[in-house]
């Protein structure tokens, strides 16, 4: 019985956390970092202020959780490729990155960071360190593994990862911030990923 009770309380806590993150995401996007209040987050999430402050005692900690949550949005079907097939591995990372960056919430998050950066530089630092960097480092590690396996020659994994994600993001994400109506189809995004993969394979693959 105790185990069942513990599981129930854990599930309830996870549901409340999810409701808080969803409400916080909406409010950050709508009102900006400065305008979003923790009291309003608690109200919209239908939780007590005590519950909110227990999990997120500051606005900064809540924003960090929102960023982490958004970057982990596709982690349920996450496939970490093994070295040995550079094209397959890059395609896995490229498609995952394109899917993440194409989400409306991610576009809104970046717009928020750009708008708030002059007044709150920590929001940009949070977005970079807790959001993009873990993904970026995972791709770096994969490229180093391919290099160690002898299937690719990647002398600078940081530059290689940056160039590859830049090719994908240059089509799938960045125009969304500036070009009204930019909304490529899934097939067009997949084609852009495949072109980035082909370019990287031509540069780094060992025949």
UniProtKB/TrEMBL annotation:
Known DNA-binding region: 37-56
UniProt keyword annotations, A-Z: DNA-binding
SUPFAM superfamilies: Homeodomain-like (SSF46689), Tetracyclin repressor-like, C-terminal domain (SSF48498)
Gene3D superfamilies: Homeodomain-like, Tetracycline Repressor, domain 2
InterPro entries: Homeodomain-like_sf, HTH-type_TetR-like_transc_reg, HTH_TetR, Tet_transcr_reg_TetR-rel_C_sf, TetR_C_Proteobacteria
One GO MF term attached to the UniProt entry: DNA-binding transcription factor activity
One matching Pfam family: TetR_N
HTH tetR-type domain mapped to chain residues: 14-74
PANTHER family the record matches: HTH-TYPE TRANSCRIPTIONAL DUAL REGULATOR CECR, HTH-TYPE TRANSCRIPTIONAL REGULATOR RUTR
Name this protein carries in UniProt: Transcriptional regulator, TetR family
